[in-house]
UniProtKB/TrEMBL annotation:
Lipoprotein is among the record's keywords: no
Lineage, top ranks: Bacteria, Pseudomonadati, Bacteroidota, Sphingobacteriia, Sphingobacteriales
Gene Ontology molecular function, alphabetical: hydrolase activity, acting on ester bonds; metal ion binding
Organism of this sequence: Sphingobacterium puteale
Binding site for a divalent metal cation 1: 74, 180
Keyword Cell membrane appears in the UniProt entry: no
Protein name (Swiss-Prot/TrEMBL): Hydrolase TatD
Superkingdom as given in the UniProt entry: Bacteria
Keyword annotations: Hydrolase, Metal-binding
Length: 219
């Protein structure tokens, strides 16, 4: 069997899904994005919370029951957002409860708010898989998150070498890769970089991340 590349978080609606590539397409319900046929995640991004949020949450309660919706997110907290932080927390915690109700993993957007995100997860007693997408912090924080059983998804920014300590040391059992909003870079480029940084074959990396994909998303 051909083991596919896994792109755990992308905003590309035109992505081709085949035996060589599997992508989880992010649908931002509060940003007027459309639905897709392939596997996707749905969420309310903390940048775009607005007066239509309650309507978006109602839509989420309906859409999350579709078989192609495999995760909830991206959702989370962002201290660089213009949205009041308390409002972000309320909306995030509502989404955590939805994920529990429908037994979906979370894809987390977190900027300068890791302690608050962790506190919200503990408050809700969330025990399903959690993926911190676009991780670009240090190895010390990475170890703290992995100790709690969480996954880290690393994106295109790692190609400049800034995440090499994390890339080289993170157990493959806690790793995902993603292209996010970067349409010019294919996820295969990330696999090649990470495999070279770790001095392992690309096929070994593909096998490991495919296993994570199947376990987390129940594929």
């Amino acid at each position: 069997m051909q083991v596919p590349y896994i792109d755990i978080h992308t905003h590309r609606l035109d992505i081709i899904q085949d035996g060589f590539n599997r992508s989880i397409i992010n649908i931002a319900l509060n940003n007027n994005e459309t639905t897709v046929e392939g596997d996707c995640s749905i969420g309310l991004h903390p940048w775009y919370i607005n007066k239509n949020t309650e309507k978006a949450l109602e839509l989420m309660r309906t859409m999350i029951q579709r078989t192609n919706v495999v995760a909830l997110g991206e959702c989370g907290l962002d201290k660089n957002s213009a949205i009041p932080f308390e409002k972000q927390q309320r909306v995030f915690e509502q989404q955590i409860l939805l994920a529990i109700t429908f037994q979906k993993p979370l894809i987390i957007h977190c900027v300068r708010a890791f302690q608050e995100v962790l506190a919200s997860l503990v408050k809700a007693k969330f025990h399903l898989p959690v993926i911190f997408h676009g991780y670009r912090k240090n190895w010390t924080l990475a170890k703290q998150l992995m100790h709690k059983g969480y996954y880290l998804s690393i994106g295109v920014h790692c190609l400049d070498g800034s995440q090499d300590e994390v890339v080289r040391n993170i157990p493959l059992t806690h790793l995902f890769l993603e292209t996010d909003t970067y349409t010019a870079t294919e996820v295969a480029t990330l696999y090649q970089y990470v495999a070279q940084a770790r001095s392992i074959p690309v096929e070994m990396l593909k096998q490991a991340l495919y296993h994570n994909y199947k376990f987390v998303l129940k594929k």
